[in-house]
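Service request form, structural biology core

Requester: graduate student, group of Dr. S.
Request type: structure prediction, single chain
Budget code: on file
Notes: please return the result as structure tokens.

Sequence provided:
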Amino acid sequence: MKRVLKPFGYALVTVYFVIDLVFEAVACPLSAWIGRLRILQPLNAWIAGLRPYPALALFSVPVVILEPVKPVGAFLLSTGHVAEGTLTIAAGEILKITLVERLFRLTRDRLMQIPAFAILYRHWVRFHEWITSSEIWRWAREQIARLKLSFRRAVARARWRFDVFLAATARARRMRRG
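Core staff response, request fulfilled:
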């Protein structure tokens, strides 16, 4: 029985981490923006000055509070509330990853002083590199880049058409007046 469940467990864990990596693309720029807010500079300095174990406790707060959002979103999805479930999962993940990423930037040196955390972090980095170097990941990144380019081109065409429309409308108004 264990042999049957083991691949399922690996698949589940892999999907979980891949979802986190996808949301990381949104959360990292958001975290950097939050880090530049002047109003938060005193709080950032206080967090950066924490000792290792208080930093670990603070680092774990967003995970403990926001991790249960996924099952809530899954429940909403399973009961037919697709938009609400999707929004719940997406918002919870973006918020969680943004806060964790920001706290990690501020407390990384302190957290690495905890031996167990440093070992787990090294494993996480290897896993992250393995996922992002995989063929499927590169293919997905390429598809996303193509979609972004298509979207930018469509927006540029729409803006051009709108500008042409505005110019034609302005010309028509001037002709009627004069």
